Amino acid sequence: MTEEELNNLNENSENNQHEPELEHNSLQNTETETIKKVSGMYQEWFLDYASYVILERAVPAIEDGFKPVQRRIMHSMKELDDGRYNKVANIVGHTMQYHPHGDASIGDAMVQIGQKDLLIDTQGNWGNILTGDEAAASRYIEARLSKFALDVLYSPKITPWQLSYDGRRNEPINLPVKFPLLLAQGGEGIAVGLSTKILPHNFIELIDASIKILKGKSFVIYPDFPTAGIADISNYNDGARGGRVRLRARISQHDKSTLIIKEIPFSTTTTTLIDSILKANEKGKIKIKKVEDNTSSDVEIVIHLPPGVSPDKTIDALYAFTSCEVSIAPLGCVIQNNRPLFTGVSDMLKQSTNRTVDLLKQELIIELGELEEQWHFLSLERIFIENRIYRLIEEEETWEGVITAIDKGLVPFTKNLKRAVTTEDIVRLTEIRIKRISKFDLDKAQEKLDALEGDIEKVKHNIEFIIEFTIAFFNNLKEKYGKGRERKTELRSFDNIEATKVVLRNQKLYVNKEEGFIGTTLRKDEYVGDCSDIDDVIVFLRDGSMIVSKIEEKKFVGKDIIHVAVFNKNDKRTIYNMIYRDGKAGASYIKRFNVSGITRDKVYNLTQEKPGSQVLYFSSNPNGEAEVVTILLRQLSNVKKLKFDFDFAELLIKGRSSKGNIVTKYPIKKIELKEKGISTLRPRKIWFDDAVSRLNVDGRGELLGEFKPEDRILIITQSGKVKTIVPELSTHFSDDVIVLEKWKPTKPISAIYFDPEKERYFAKRFLVESVNKEEIFISEHPYARLEIVSTDYRPMVEVLFAKIKGIEKEPLLINFEEFIAVKGIKAQGNQVTTDKVKLMNLLQPLPFEEIQDEEPIEKPEFNDTVDESTLTIEEDGQIGFNLD
Fold first, then answer.
1. Does domain 66-176 have CATH number 2.30.29.30?
2. Interior CA angle at 751 toward 747 and 755, to 5°?
3. Suppose 232 and one of 52, 246, 851, 868 were both cysteines; which one would form an S-S bond, judging by CB atoms 3.0 to 4.6 Å apart?
């Protein structure tokens, strides 16, 4: 709450004083109470409290990345450090000397630091971030500082100090952290009026980015989570306010009835994840048989599916309705100069890197001063002993005389010293023992001086080239501590999952067409189909009106319903064929249309809105089918032809608001279906978007081809398995897919694989004959590996051999067409070579003219002669003829 808002509160409270006094009735008498002004105390106390929570408890400092309690823990651990483990209870008790709060907050903060596996070397049960299990009591677990913490956290000579809360001890204001610790560990906290949520980043990537900053290069950093998983950081916004990160569990299909979760989203645990899955199952959003939690050191959640449930749709439903997908809003807020600062992670890293440079320079300057002091005193000691100046004090009777005698004796020899001789220097000379003077070795003294001079020059060089020194420091950190800290979270763009397409349809939709009711509770009426509670339903009425509404238990939509179905938004392949009468005695019109964008519960009129209009014929066609109907007219004296056929394929597909074409101006007696139609839509184009590993019809990614209903997709994996599938947009693809294309049944597949059992390479060609199951086409030995696979008609492969006794064999060229005939998928194939192979390369295939099997689009035939200029072909491939 800002100060301005507090002042407004104060003014309101002052105004309230002039309101009528409140009257309170009691059992004995009536008393009047007055409202007392407390705004001054409220303003001061609240601001003090808010400032304290922000600065001293919830928000980390940008200098070292620590909250006060964390900083005090690390300081206490350094004071107790002797290389051995300490009981956490002892560390907590020691920290209470500096921390004004209870032991519980210290213990919880220490466990959180320990679970991040960076600063604290832990021993015992520290809990599990994967399962959410808590750590054991502090008296049972132990800790000590990690080597990394000792290298980057402490340097007492450059640490700013302050008195502890009780004034008895000194504690660090900030630790001299020489690493972007805040970004590596992440941090979050809720204060008064603000909060912070800084996501963890990868150790190695932070070091690489810091080096780029020092070299003046551009950089970018993204979060990396200890629970691994998959992250979409397209809207990360540099970790600043307003961004958002989507996280998903890694779900794989073990078989047709089993899914396995190997990694979970950050901020969830296996316990919360399983609870969300069970709740979604109870609510009917998904359908599962049972869930097993086999998590130990690694996550393994096994989901068993009932027979007939699609694994691909279940995976999408898990992302849509459970904690398998979560969204996190980062908020970069830190304390700088005792004020909250909202910033992005790039600025945090720049400030951390620049501070590391400054801290290293401070350490070097202090080290240089210490080395120069050593050199100065060693030089002075040498002069003192070598020139026997100590003999000048033999006749002196007072201390002042001793100091003066030594001072005068040093004067002729101090020209080459780097600073003047002080009284403290002379006092130190008098403290040299006779034994040391008697054993003084001039050569050894000179060696020490030479070594110190070398160290001094080295430190001066590092100060002069401090950027290069800092880069070397970061590289050393990466070399010492980077192993095992590679990125865990995969970065990938996510596709948006529409809940209505993946939700389990666990309810039944009914309709009472006469009375105009639809709903899930009308069990005595006509059954429409399965639905879910988040679906929409589309309804067409006899008067030519249409409405899309939410499915409810019972709802009135209008009398005389002619068609009702579950509505799929943006479905442009479902085509409605309709003939309607315009008004009570008007002409009859025919039209074809689809319904995509609509406003829920809005009534749309599909006729020309004249009173008495009526739908005479209606059909819904999920794949754009166009039937032939027979139209019978009422008998009139001036009408000779009372019966004729009409093919809906002759019409263009237009919008729902189109007027349509005139069928006849005479009254229609009846319309009969003569012949069912086939689809008039062009084969559907399907693309594969590698960024999200999903199929789409929106033109994103690589075009796989145009697919008819009977067409399939060919999938080949690195593990040597092949299968064909119907191209459904909900399909999930594994990471080891190496071939994904439109399947041509007559096109052979060529492959070379290594059989470990026979220690030979084999080449084979085969056709995929089974369309309903996945088959392995290499050896089933667990260490067999696929080397080359090609779907070209005439592939060429180059085999390079390893050198044997310095001799390299000429490369082998393999023309698959000549090398081996097309055989069955289980055939072993022909042996390629017995020599040791170094590499195999797939070359440009030999030319081949492929026979196109696409059928040309034919123009429709009409009974009457027509003007060719009126014939049109729309973008979706629909052929039509305008009869107006």
1. no
2. 150
3. 246
**Distance, CA of 792 to CA of 815 (rounded, Å):** 12
Tell me the C-alpha to C-alpha distance, in Å, between residue 465 and each of 364, 462, 742: 11, 5, 60
pLDDT value of residue 208: 96
Rounded average pLDDT over 836-845: 90
**What residues have CB less than 8 Å from 626, skipping those under 6 apart?**
575, 577, 592, 647, 648, 649, 651, 677, 678, 679, 680
Of 52, 140, 154, 165, the catalytic one is 140
Mean of pLDDT over the chain: 87
CATH topology of domain 245-328: Gyrase A; domain 2 (3.30.1360)
CB-CB neighbours of 287 under 10 Å: 18
CA dist 801 and 835 (Å) reads 7
**Per-residue pLDDT at 867:** 34
Can you list the positions of beta strands (E) in 726-828? Answer: 737-742, 749-755, 760-766, 775-776, 785-790, 796-801, 812-815, 822-823
**pLDDT for res 851:** 60
Structural fold of domain 178-242+333-504: Topoisomerase; domain 3 (1.10.268)
The whole-angstrom separation of Cα 189 and Cα 195 is 6
Give the pLDDT score at 863. Answer: 34
Q: Please confirm, yes or no, whether 42 is among the known catalytic residues.
A: no
pTM of the model: 0.75
Distance CA 866, CA 869 (A): 9
- Position 3 confidence tier, pLDDT thresholds 50, 70, 90: very low
CATH 2.120.10.90 fits 506-675, yes or no: yes
Task: State the Cα angle at 498 between 494 and 503, rounded to 5°.
Answer: 120
Q: How confident is the model at residue 39 (pLDDT cuts 50, 70, 90)?
A: low
CA distance 549 to 541: 14
Domain ranges of the chain: 3-45, 66-176, 178-242+333-504, 245-328, 506-675, 687-843
Q: Could you count the other beta carbons within 10 Å of the beta carbon of residue 831?
A: 12
